[in-house]
Write a structure and sequence with these properties.
The chain contains 25 helices and 10 strands. The protein is α/β, with parallel strands linked by helices and 529 residues long. The chain folds into 4 domains: 179 residues, Rossmann fold (3-Layer(aba) Sandwich), CATH 3.40.50.300; 66 residues, Helicase, Ruva Protein, domain 3; 66 residues, Arc Repressor Mutant, subunit A (Orthogonal Bundle); 168 residues, no CATH class. The longest helix is centred in the C-terminal third of the chain and has 22 residues. The protein starts with 18 loop residues before the first helix and ends with a helix.
């Protein structure tokens, strides 16, 4: 391992500590009926490291798997359902060619997809064999919004076969990453037996890590300061240990030496701290700032999701019924980097400043709106996360936002039956309104159900809200503003779905996201209560 602990780089470091997590994963995969597993943890927490440790442990001990396939979806990211199955077939073929060259060649063929995978999994079952797939970086294809309900249902069929088991790695629970409104109802998400969480190093992990360096001796005070500065979050903890090793090859290290090393480490690992801080929602950031000022807060008074965000990264810790601030490195970073929120010129005075700060502005505007529908809010939150780095991805879940908003509108306006009320029908069927194409069609068919096509639903909403000439508003709750905004979201959605080689600009993506946020604000006022 050399003098230093490996942290981040092009090669996945060797696993340090985490033996309890690894053993639990091993037990779940080697029991008589192995489980499908979802591993969840924040950025830089070491999920990929654990997957590599799992591969090593399964290869060294008795394992029920004839082959293990590691698929890095963060770099090999499928762009469609067909692409997903093609890449899945190729990765399976790579691992199975050592078991059966015929299987490997069959799956690595350019045309291989769902049908070929299913045949091979069935053949493995007949031979009483099983293959394990490890899907690292599964967030990226889920977050792209390019994959459909049909894919997840087909994957469900594959994963129900005894010949295949899957382990996924993501930063959040799977159901919180799905963008497509239809996909969320697939039974695929129910196959995973619980969630294995990865966060800060536990005390047992820390003891094992320190033992790796035989000459490293830390006093009790030094260990306390090491945890105060890093909270045991892997890259920060190991990075500070490396700074200590630079100055102390032999002899006992005291708390003063740790504090001195930490001064250099804060600057050295500021990029990691920046990414971790940016991953926090504005409300979690506000909670951290408050904790640093107040020293603590009762757990009951802190938001549950915000508390979990901070605790999993080591930015806060729970003790009894209280929440305390953690990670002195982050405290120093926030103190140095905290923007002057009162300076509009600094935040938005140039294009680069606007680009840098637009996500925070959108997130803070969203935080003003009461969370009246969790699913709709989560879809908008995921879209905001992709700006400014991935403006094309921002708009990939506008379909889900549009469809969820329409569902809520019709549920409020027309009830569960989603049928135009009699009094509205009576008004619409009077000339000149009866000459409108949509009204005429419903009259001819004698069907006043909300149409299935989303565009027709938006047209119906224009009539209901009085947004079309000769039609007065007959909506119980929804306003013209909601109609205009949902129509805008639909238009932006069409722009993203049919790019014709033209990429989405950051400013356009920001405009689309602001339309989504203000749509939520309108709906909260009109139907949220």
């Amino acid at each position: 391992m050399g003098k230093h602990f490996p942290i981040l780089g092009t090669k996945t470091p060797e696993m340090l500590g985490r033996e309890d997590i690894l053993q639990n994963l091993f037990n779940e995969l080697t029991k008589p009926t192995p489980s499908h597993i979802s591993i969840v943890g924040p950025r830089f927490s070491g999920k990929s490291v654990i997957l590599n440790g799992l591969i090593k442990k399964l290869n060294e001990q008795d394992s029920p798997f004839c082959g293990i396939s590691y698929w890095d979806l963060g770099h090999q990211t499928p762009l469609s359902d067909e692409d997903f199955f093609h890449l899945m077939a190729y990765n399976l073929g790579n691992c199975l060619e050592k078991v059966d060259p015929e299987y490997g060649e069959y799956l690595k063929d350019k045309g291989a997809g769902y049908g070929e995978i299913r045949e091979v999994i069935k053949a493995l079952e007949l031979n009483q064999q099983m293959v394990l797939m490890l899907w690292d970086g599964f967030d990226k294809p889920l977050g792209s919004g390019n994959l459909t309900r049909n894919l997840w249902d087909n994957l469900l069929n594959l994963c129900r076969q005894p010949g295949l088991r899957v382990v996924t790695c993501t930063r959040k629970e799977l159901h919180k990453l799905i963008r497509d409104e239809q996909s969320v109802t697939s039974d695929f998400w129910g196959i995973f037996d619980g969630v294995s969480r990865v966060g800060v190093f536990e005390e047992k992990d820390i003891e094992e890590i320190i033992k790796v360096k035989a000459g490293l001796q830390l006093s009790a005070g030094a260990r306390s300061e090491l945890m105060n500065w890093t909270s045991g979050f892997p890259p920060l903890f190991l990075g500070l240990l490396n700074n200590i090793l630079d100055a102390h090859d032999q002899g006992e290290v005291d708390n003063d030496a740790v504090n001195q090393a930490a001064g250099n480490a804060c600057d050295k690992y500021s990029a990691i701290l920046s990414r971790m801080w940016d991953d926090c929602t504005p409300s979690a950031q506000d909670l951290y700032v408050y904790l640093n000022k107040s020293g603590m807060t009762p757990v009951s008074e802190a938001g549950k999701s915000e508390s979990r965000e901070l605790v999993e990264k080591g930015f806060a810790r729970e003790a009894g019924s209280k929440l305390f601030p953690g990670c002195r490195m982050l405290r120093e970073y926030v103190r140095q980097e905290e923007p002057d929120i009162g300076s509009m010129a600094r935040l938005f005075g140039s294009w680069e400043s606007y680009r840098k700060n637009i996500r925070d502005l959108l997130q803070r505007r969203l935080s003003h709106i009461p969370r009246f529908d969790d699913r709709l809010f989560r879809l908008v939150e995921m879209a905001i996360k992709d700006i400014p780095e991935y403006p094309d991805y921002c708009l990939n879940n506008l379909t889900g936002i549009r469809d969820r908003a329409l569902h809520l509108i019709w549920e409020r306006e027309f009830g569960e039956g989603k049928k135009v009320p009699v009094e509205v029908v009576r008004y619409w069927t009077i000339n000149p309104r009866s000459e409108h194409g949509m009204v005429k069609g419903m009259m001819n068919s004698d069907c006043w159900d909300v149409p299935a096509d989303p565009l027709d639903q938006i047209r119906l909403l224009s009539l209901l809200t009085g947004s079309y000439r000769n039609f007065e508003a007959r909506a119980k709750s929804v306003s013209k503003d909601s109609y205009v905004l949902i129509d805008a979201v639909h238009t932006f959605r069409n722009r993203a779905q049919h790019p014709d080689g033209q990429s989405i600009r950051v400013g356009v993506a920001a405009a689309a996201l602001m339309a989504c946020i203000e749509l939520l604000a309108c709906l909260e006022r009109e139907i949220g209560n």
